[in-house]
Design goal:
- 49% of the residues lie in helices and 17% in strands.
- The protein is an alpha+beta fold.
- Strand 17 and strand 18 form a beta hairpin.
- The protein starts with 8 loop residues before the first helix and ends with a helix.
Length: 868
C-alpha cells in the first residue's frame, strides 16, 4: 500500500490487521520475521587492508614496482629499498585519507528515539524503538522524537518540527483526517508523522506504517549509502595525466631498451637504462606533494572558519561554478522575526513601534497573551512563530512572564487547522477578554468591529476590510507570514466554545519572516562577481522562497522558479534543459536535490551544495563540494559534507573559493616544476642512449632528486601567496586539462635548458676518462639546476616582480635542498650509497655555474614578457 495519507483509518487498520487496541502478542514474532527491526542498515564497508591494497592499482605505482624488481635483480638494493619505501609511504597516506570517510549512517542511527510508548493488547507499555512494527499504535507528545513513520489517528493540537527532513524551521500542525490528493511531498502530508522529527506541541496517537529503511529517514540513508563520492576536478586531471604519462613512459622505455640491445649492450644493462628512464620520468613525490599542499591550504581555511574534511575539495572550491544553497539557516537566520505591524490602516515597522500608542502596544500585548512560547535569558522554548511574537515584546520591555502574570489566562481554545485560529480567555483590568490569533482571512470574516488608534471601538467598514486585505496580500507577496489578532469581551468565566470565536473587535496584523543573514547579500554579490551562479533550494513555498531570493540577489528578472511537484513531472533531460535558468527551487525532497546537482554536473559544471539538515545529506555527498553548517547543522549533514563552516556564514564560502583558486594555481606551478625537472632527466638519459654513452644516472640519483631535493621547492611553491584578485577571475572549466599546450611547451623548453647544462657537466667529467666523475657532475648539476628552477615556478612574473622574500619558504627549501646535495657530495660515507665520486673545487664551481644558467635565461625571458 502506498500513499497512506490518502487512506482512511479503517482501511489502514484493516490493511495492517490491527486495531486501536494495538497489535496482539501472538502476532509479534511473525511480524518481526516479515518486517525486521526498526533500525537503519548500511552496506558493508571496505577493510583498511583492502583500501591499502587498492592504492597499488595506480599504473605509475606498477611501473615503480617493476623498476624496484629490476633494480633488485641487477644488485642495486639501495634503489630497491628507496623505491619500495616511496610506494609504501604513498599507500599509507592514501589509506589514512580514505579511512576518514563519512559516518553518516551512524549519525542517522543516533537520531532514532531509544524508547517508544505503544499500545499492545490494549495495554500501554514502553519498548525500544527498534522493536516497533507496522501496525503498532504509538503515543507521542511534546518533547518526543517520532520513532517511525506513521499515520495520525487522533491528535490533540499536535505540532511537529520536520526541519531535519524538509529543511523548514516552522513546526507543522498535524491533522487526523484523510487527504484525498495524491502525489504529495513529505512537507504536505499533514496527517503523517515521520521518523526523526521532533514533537514541539500537543500529543497524538499514531499508527506505525513503515519502519527502518522503508521510512523517509531510511530512504535518505539509502540515498546516502548509494551516492558515490564525486571525483574532484584535480583528481580527474591527475588521473588523465597519470594515464597519458604512463603510456608515454612505457613507449619511451621500450624504445630505449631495444635501441640499447641493438647497439650490443647486454639485456641487463639495457634494462637498467630503461629503469633509469622510468624513474626519471615518474614524479614519485607528486601525490604526496599535492596532499601536503592541500593540507597546508586546509590549515589556512580552518583559521577562516572553514574545516575541510576531504583534502581535494580545497582545490575543487577554486573551480566551483554553481552553489546550490539551502535557504533556512544557511542564507537565512533560521529564526522567525517580526517585520511589520498593521493597525488602523497603517503599516508600522517592528523597529519603529510607538510605546505611547495604545493600539500598537495593545497588539503586542495580545500577541504575547495568545501564545505559549517563552524566552528565558536567551533560551527560547516553543513554536518559532510564537517565539518571534515574544521576542518583539522583549525589544520593548514587554516580558512575557510579567504580561501573563498581570493578565492571567483563564481558559483557552487550542489552534487547529480547521478553524485556523487559537483563542485564550484573559482577565484584563477586571474584565474577561477572548483574545484570538489566526489566519487573516478567517479572523477578518468574523470581525464586526475595529480598534482605532485613539483606543475607540467602531463598527468595521468595507473600506477597513479592503485595507486589511490589501495589507495582507502585500505582506504575502513579499514572502511574509501573516497573523491577525482580534478580541471580544466575555461575560463571566466558563468553558469556551468554538461559537465564541465570532463578532470580534479587529486589532491588527503582524507579519514575520525568517530573515536573510546580514552577510548573505554581500556573499551572493561576490558569488556573481566570481562567475558563480547561486541557486536556492528549499522546502519552503514558492512565494516565500522567491521573495528571500530576490531580496538577497539570487533571483533576477527573467529567472525561473520550480517546485517539487513540477520537478517530479520532468525527466532528467528536461530538467537539464531548464536548470541554467532556474534560480529557486521550492518544496523539494532529498531525491530532487540530487537530481538538481546531477543536472548541473552533466552540463560540466562544478557544483557546491550547502545545507544543514538530514534532508541535505545525500545531495551534500553527491555534490563536487558538500558544505555543511557547523552550528545549526545536523551530525548527518556534517558527516556527509566535505567542508564544514564553523560560523555558518555563507560569505566564508567565498573566502574559501579565493583560497581554492590560489591553491590550484600553486599546485599547477608545483607540477610544472616537477615535470620540467623530470623532462630534463628524461632528455639527458635519452640523449645518452642515442649517443651510445654509458648510463649517466643511477636510479638512486633520480630518486634522490625526485623525492628529497625536488619535494622541498615543490611544497614551497604550494605555499605561494595570492598574486592579484582571483575573485575577479571566472571559474575554470571542469574538463580543462592540467597540462594545456602552453604549459606543456613551457615545461619542454625549461626541461631542455636544464638537460643541456646537465649533459655539458657530464662531458666535463667524462672527458677525463672517468664515467663515475661524469655521472656525479651530471647528477649534481641536474639536482642544483632543479633547485634553482624552483624560483622560476613561483608564478608568471620574474623574481623581481614576485618578490624574493614574499615566499620565504622557497628560500628555505632551496637552502635545505642544497645542503642535502652537498652533504651527499662531501661526506664520504654517503658516496657508495648514492653512487657518487669525489669532486674538486673546480668541479664544484663548474657545476654551480652550469646549474644557474637555465634560471638566469628563464628569468630574463620572464622579465621581458611579464614585467615590462
Amino acid at each position: 500500500m502506498k500513499d497512506f495519507y490518502s487512506k482512511s483509518k479503517q482501511e489502514l487498520l484493516g490493511y495492517f490487521d490491527t486495531s486501536e487496541e494495538g497489535l496482539k502478542k501472538q502476532d509479534l514474532e511473525k511480524l518481526k520475521e516479515e518486517y525486521g527491526e526498526n533500525v537503519l542498515n548500511s552496506k558493508e564497508k571496505k577493510t583498511a587492508i583492502a583500501i591499502f591494497l587498492e592504492q597499488f592499482k595506480d599504473f605509475l605505482v606498477i611501473i615503480l614496482l617493476v623498476a624496484a624488481a629490476i633494480s633488485f635483480v641487477s644488485g642495486n638494493k639501495e634503489s630497491t629499498i628507496v623505491i619500495l619505501a616511496v610506494i609504501i609511504m604513498n599507500s599509507i597516506l592514501g589509506t589514512v585519507q580514505h579511512l576518514k570517510a563519512e559516518k553518516s549512517l551512524e549519525s542517522l542511527k543516533k537520531m532514532s528515539s531509544p524508547k517508544a510508548k505503544v499500545i499492545r493488547d490494549g495495554q500501554k507499555q514502553e519498548i525500544n524503538s527498534s522493536e516497533l512494527l507496522p501496525g503498532d499504535i504509538v503515543l507521542i507528545e511534546a518533547g518526543d522524537v517520532v520513532p517511525s513513520d506513521g499515520r495520525v489517528l487522533e491528535t490533540h493540537s499536535l505540532m511537529v518540527n520536520e526541519s531535519s527532513l524538509t529543511g523548514e524551521s516552522e513546526s507543522v500542525e498535524k491533522i487526523s483526517q484523510t487527504i484525498d490528493t495524491t502525489g504529495l511531498t513529505v512537507g504536505d502530508q499533514k496527517n503523517m508523522v515521520f521518523s526523526g522529527s521532533l514533537v514541539t506541541y500537543g500529543r497524538a496517537k499514531i499508527l506505525v506504517t513503515t519502519i527502518g529503511m522503508k521510512t523517509e529517514l531510511g530512504k535518505i540513508a539509502s540515498l546516502l549509502d548509494e551516492t558515490e563520492d564525486a571525483m574532484t576536478p584535480l583528481q580527474k586531471s591527475l588521473e588523465k595525466f597519470g594515464k597519458k604519462l604512463s603510456i608515454a613512459i612505457i613507449v619511451l622505455c621500450i624504445v630505449v631498451f631495444f635501441m640499447s640491445v641493438a647497439r650490443g649492450i647486454n639485456i641487463l644493462d639495457s634494462l637498467m637504462f630503461a629503469v633509469a628512464l622510468a624513474v626519471a620520468a615518474i614524479p614519485e613525490a607528486l601525490g604526496s606533494i599535492v596532499t601536503i599542499v592541500l593540507a597546508i591550504g586546509t590549515q589556512k581555511m580552518a583559521k577562516e572558519n572553514a574545516i575541510i574534511k576531504k583534502l581535494h575539495s580545497v582545490e575543487s572550491l577554486g573551480c566551483v561554478s554553481v552553489i546550490c544553497s539551502d535557504k533556512t539557516g544557511t542564507l537565512t537566520q533560521n529564526k522567525m522575526t517580526v517585520q511589520h505591524l498593521y493597525v488602523d490602516g497603517k503599516v508600522v515597522e517592528s523597529e519603529k513601534i510607538d510605546l505611547n500608542s495604545k493600539i500598537e502596544i495593545g497588539l503586542l500585548r495580545s500577541a504575547i497573551l495568545c501564545s505559549d512560547a517563552v524566552n528565558n535569558n536567551g533560551q527560547e522554548i516553543g513554536d518559532p512563530t510564537e517565539i518571534a511574537l515574544v521576542n518583539v515584546g522583549h525589544k520593548y520591555n514587554l516580558a512575557e512572564v510579567e504580561i501573563r502574570n498581570k493578565y492571567p489566562r483563564l481558559k483557552e481554545l487550542p489552534f487547529d487547522s480547521d478553524r485556523k485560529m487559537m483563542s485564550t480567555l484573559n482577565e484584563i483590568e477586571g474584565k474577561n477578554y477572548l483574545i484570538t490569533k489566526g489566519a487573516p482571512d478567517v479572523v477578518v470574516e468574523k470581525a464586526k468591529y475595529i480598534l482605532r488608534e485613539d483606543g475607540n471601538i467602531e463598527k468595521i467598514s468595507e473600506t477597513d476590510v479592503e485595507k486589511i486585505k490589501k495589507a495582507n496580500i502585500n505582506f504575502a507577496e513579499h514572502g511574509l507570514r501573516v497573523l491577525a489578532f482580534a478580541m471580544k469581551e466575555i461575560e463571566g468565566i466558563r468553558e469556551l466554545e468554538f461559537s465564541d470565536e465570532d463578532s470580534f473587535i479587529f486589532i491588527g496584523l503582524i507579519s514575520m519572516i525568517d530573515p536573510p543573514r546580514e552577510e548573505s547579500k554581500e556573499a551572493v554579490k561576490n558569488c556573481i562577481r566570481a562567475g558563480i551562479k547561486p541557486v536556492m533550494i528549499t522546502g519552503d513555498y514558492k512565494v516565500t522562497a522567491k521573495a528571500i531570493a530576490k531580496e538577497i540577489g539570487i533571483y533576477k528578472d527573467g529567472d525561473e522558479t520550480l517546485n517539487g511537484v513540477e520537478i517530479e513531472k520532468m525527466s532528467d533531460d528536461e530538467l537539464m534543459k531548464h536548470v541554467e535558468r532556474i534560480s529557486v527551487y521550492a518544496r523539494v525532497s532529498p531525491e530532487h536535490k540530487i537530481r538538481i546537482v546531477s543536472a548541473w554536473q552533466k552540463l560540466g559544471k562544478i557544483c557546491a551544495m550547502t545545507g544543514d539538515g538530514v534532508n541535505d545529506a545525500p545531495a551534500l555527498k553527491k555534490a563536487d563540494v558538500g558544505i555543511a553548517m557547523g552550528i545549526t547543522g545536523t551530525e548527518v549533514s556534517k558527516d556527509a559534507a566535505s567542508m564544514i563552516l564553523t560560523d555558518d556564514n555563507f560569505s566564508t564560502i567565498i573566502k574559501s573559493v579565493v583560497t581554492g583558486r590560489n591553491l590550484y594555481a600553486n599546485i599547477k606551478n608545483s607540477i610544472r616544476f616537477l615535470l620540467s625537472g623530470n623532462t630534463a632527466g628524461i632528455l639527458a638519459v635519452f640523449y645518452a642512449s642515442l649517443m651510445g654513452l654509458p648510463v649517466i644516472f643511477a636510479p638512486v640519483h633520480l630518486l634522490f632528486i625526485n623525492l628529497l631535493t625536488d619535494s622541498l621547492p615543490a611544497i614551497a611553491i604550494g605555499m605561494e601567496p595570492s598574486h592579484g584578485d582571483v575573485l575577479d577571475e571566472k571559474p575554470r572549466e571542469a574538463n580543462s586539462p592540467l597540462l594545456d599546450k602552453k604549459l606543456s611547451g613551457r615545461i619542454l623548453m625549461e626541461g631542455m635548458l636544464i638537460a643541456i647544462v646537465t649533459m655539458i657537466a657530464f662531458y666535463l667529467g667524462y672527458a677525463k676518462g672517468d664515467v663515475g666523475l661524469g655521472s656525479t657532475m651530471a647528477f649534481s648539476t641536474l639536482c642544483l639546476g632543479r633547485l634553482f628552477h624552483g624560483f622560476n615556478c613561483r608564478g608568471n612574473g620574474s623574481i623581481i616582480k614576485l618578490g624574493i622574500t614574499k615566499n620565504m619558504f622557497s628560500i628555505y627549501a632551496f637552502l635545505l635542498g642544497a645542503a642535502l646535495l652537498y652533504m651527499v657530495l662531501l661526506v664520504p660515507s654517503f658516496h657508495e650509497m648514492f653512487a657518487v665520486s669525489d669532486l674538486s673545487v673546480m668541479n664544484f664551481g663548474e657545476m654551480t655555474i652550469l646549474a644557474f644558467i637555465p634560471t638566469l635565461i628563464i628569468q630574463v625571458l620572464k622579465y621581458i614578457k611579464y614585467d615590462r
